[in-house]
Design goal:
Number of strands of chain A: 9
Helix content of chain A: 40-55%
Shape of chain B: flat
Strand order of the largest sheet of chain A: 2-5-8-1-9
Oligomer: heterodimer
Largest sheet of chain A: 5 strands, parallel
Order of helices and strands of chain A: HEHEHEHEHEHHEEEHEHHHHHH
Shape of chain A: elongated
Structural class of chain B: alpha/beta
Radius of gyration of chain B: 26 Å
Strand order of the largest sheet of chain B: 4-3-7-8-9
Structural class of chain A: alpha/beta
Chain lengths: ~270, ~400
């Protein structure tokens, strides 16, 4: 059986691997939620890498409809072609543009399908995909074909909680909430990204990071991805452990604070 | 297998269905686990819980049910992300108290402790201080430390007895009814759909295309239109604090249903009557105010305005300058209400007080008059009626 344990570049906590493996084994979509920047989208990429399978990504926007994931029928270009007397016109299949779901369904091996930020779409969007995700099949009216997945893809769905998802949809998914990593895990994550960092620098950087994160009134807490970016800036700016020490003692301001805090209100609090 | 556990979860308010149970069995059947409790905990959590709001409840239930299985450490059981704890806990507990509760771990003592806290709070309340829940953080969307929290609030309001509820009924299943109620509310609100074609052209307009193609002597001339979308915009104005505390549960249901149904949803709070300022975060109501005037400027008149409030106050608060109980208001509340409904011709008032009791409160009648009869009880029926009225512009004549 295929098992996911994280990769060299991605530390998956044990509960996350259990969730992913359950979703793979039972061939159910896995809904991932969590604070922004905790690696929700990255997960699908890493699963693809770990299992060595192709990845299909479907990014959802506010205007995305469920139908676009299945296929789109391009009537306009068919009409135009008919005027020009093109032979293609006779076969309607020439004007069906396959969506990501169709592509994933007809792939010759098990693939990973990422439906990214499903909460951005219209409220009806998840309801329109119920059957497709459950049975992994759909019907193409124009050609009269029944599209059935050759291999049920591993579906990862991410959500940022901007809208609630309907119950019927939730019932068809497994659910995992990526909580913010604890100190040890976070250290591992940093080590994966920057293996040769000076120990004291990491220690001080983490301490500062947690101090900022634990400020109570902060609107947008910095998360893993912000920490990684910030450490990168510290390296580029050649900030050393001593300088971070000074920050903690209040002798100077936090360098590159903009990488951690993204709005004025939060920065003002820290000062 | 684990049927008892499953039923126990359902009883305690985690919305699990047969499907989740079968999924769990299937997962166990696949031998995914190495038969240790940690893994079982992770697996069952993934399969059974579909919403992070339920995670902490789940953790507690799991702890109680599998008590005695030593491999699970209590820290793992109460692996509650800090934020939800804070969001839910803020209302009732201080940080230290929360820490305390967490360290107590098991459900029984946790509930006891909670009952105790409530008792204290009740007493303080009678002593004249404000309830923590009312003075402080926003009551909307949070159900207290665990789902039973709502029940406390409700029973308190009806019988004015906080503690007794805990003896038995605290454990009574509540989430399910509530789920049903939000669902009904969602369905009622859904009728407020105003479909219109706006924005990007993405559909082919067949009739127009045929016409222009014919005009174009048979050469294809494609005409596109935007697709139909629900464009209704809603502005919710909640009365908060004071006598509204009794209706928190109902209002938060309405809020979550509305949040689900409407893409364009804005909300503000006010206290008792509308005055020159409204606010978005109740805990920061004195620092971050929005002038009511600027609400007129920000939102155009196609917003549907829904007032939610019990309209129960002293008549002075409506018709007299400086009548507000909280601050110095130069102009009386009714002036601001008038301005509001002049700017927004689509409006209703939803009142959580049962309609049969309206006649006993003078101010309800006054507001009803200002609202030109557009006040409805906050019930499913009432919402349905209100939604119907919301589609009609106010033309000066009272409805009903």
């Amino acid at each position: 059986m295929i098992k996911f344990q994280g990769t060299a570049d991605y530390i998956a906590s044990h509960d996350l691997s259990v969730a992913v493996n359950a979703a793979i084994a039972l061939e159910k979509p896995l809904l991932i939620k969590g604070e922004p920047g905790t690696g929700k989208t990255l997960l699908a990429h890493e699963i693809a890498k770990a299992l060595n399978k192709p990845l299909y990504t479907w990014h959802i926007k506010s205007t995305t409809t469920a139908q676009q994931g299945l296929y789109e029928y391009d009537a306009v270009s068919r009409l135009r072609d008919s005027q020009l007397g093109n032979d293609k016109v006779d076969n309607i299949a020439n004007y069906i543009n396959k969506g990501k779901l169709w592509q994933a369904f007809e792939a010759d091996e098990k693939v990973i399908l990422l439906i990214d930020e499903i909460d951005k779409a219209d409220i009806e969007f998840p309801n329109d995909l119920l059957l497709e995700l459950d049975k992994m099949q759909f019907f193409c009216y124009e050609t009269g074909e029944e599209i059935i997945a050759k291999h049920r893809p591993i579906i990862i769905i991410t959500s940022n909680n901007e809208k609630e998802l309907p119950d019927a949809f939730l019932r068809r998914c497994f659910f995992h909430y990526i909580s913010f990593p604890d100190r040890e895990t976070l250290k591992e994550i940093v080590a994966v990204h920057y293996p040769n960092l000076e120990k004291q620098l990491v220690e001080n950087a983490m301490q500062l990071f947690y101090a900022i994160r634990n400020q109570r009134n902060i609107k947008k807490k910095p998360s893993t991805s912000e920490l990684i970016d910030w450490i990168k800036l510290l390296l580029v700016g050649k900030i050393n452990a001593q300088e971070l020490d000074d920050v903690m003692e209040g002798k100077r301001e936090t360098p590159f604070l903009g990488a951690l805090l993204k709005n004025e209100h939060d920065k003002a609090i820290l000062r | 297998m684990f049927l008892d556990f499953f039923l126990f979860l359902k009883e305690k308010g985690i919305p699990v269905t047969l499907r989740e149970y079968l999924d769990l069995l299937a997962a166990l059947d696949k031998n995914l686990l190495e038969y240790n409790v940690d893994d079982f905990y992770f697996l069952s959590r993934t399969v059974l819980v579909k919403n992070e709001e339920h995670l902490d409840t789940y953790d507690q239930i799991f702890g109680v049910y599998f008590k005695g299985i030593e491999q699970i450490q209590s820290s793992e059981l109460l692996n509650i992300p800090d934020e939800w704890l804070r969001k839910n806990g803020e209302r009732l507990f201080s940080r230290e108290e929360l820490e305390n509760i967490k360290s107590q771990g098991d459900l029984e003592s946790l509930l006891d402790r909670m009952a105790e806290l409530l008792k204290e709070q009740k007493e303080r309340h009678q002593g004249g201080n404000k309830w923590i829940g009312t003075g402080g953080t926003s009551p909307f969307g949070a159900y207290g430390y665990n789902p039973e929290g709502v029940r406390i609030g409700q029973d308190k309001s009806r019988h004015r007895k906080a503690v007794k509820v805990w003896d038995k009924r605290g454990f009574k299943d509540l989430s399910q009814d509530e789920e049903l109620e939000t669902r009904n509310m969602k369905m009622a609100l859904r009728k407020l759909r105003i479909l219109s074609r706006e924005g990007r052209t993405e559909e082919i307009d067949l009739n127009k295309t045929i016409k222009s193609t014919a005009k174009n002597s048979g050469m294809l001339e494609v005409e596109m239109v935007p697709s139909k979308k629900n464009v209704v915009k809603v502005l919710l104005l909640f009365d908060i604090g004071g006598s509204m505390d009794d209706h928190i549960a109902l209002c938060s249901q309405l809020f979550s249903a509305a949040k689900y149904e409407f893409k364009h949803l804005e909300f503000f709070y006010f206290h008792n009557c509308l005055y020159e300022n409204v606010w978005k975060q109740n805990e920061r109501r004195w620092e971050e105010k929005t002038p009511t005037e600027s609400v007129f400027n920000t939102f155009n008149d196609d917003y549907r305005v829904v007032f939610v409030g019990d309209a129960s106050m002293s008549p002075y608060e409506i018709f007299s300058p400086q009548g507000s109980v909280e601050h110095y208001n130069e102009e009386p509340g009714q002036v601001w209400l008038q301005r509001m409904i002049e700017h927004f011709p689509y409006f209703v008032w939803l009142n959580p007080v049962p309609k049969t009791e309206w006649k006993y409160t003078q101010s309800i009648g006054m507001i009803q008059k200002i609202m030109k009869g557009r006040m409805f009880p906050l019930t499913i029926k009432g919402i349905e009626k209100a939604v119907g009225i919301l589609k009609k512009k106010d033309k000066g004549t009272p409805v009903v």
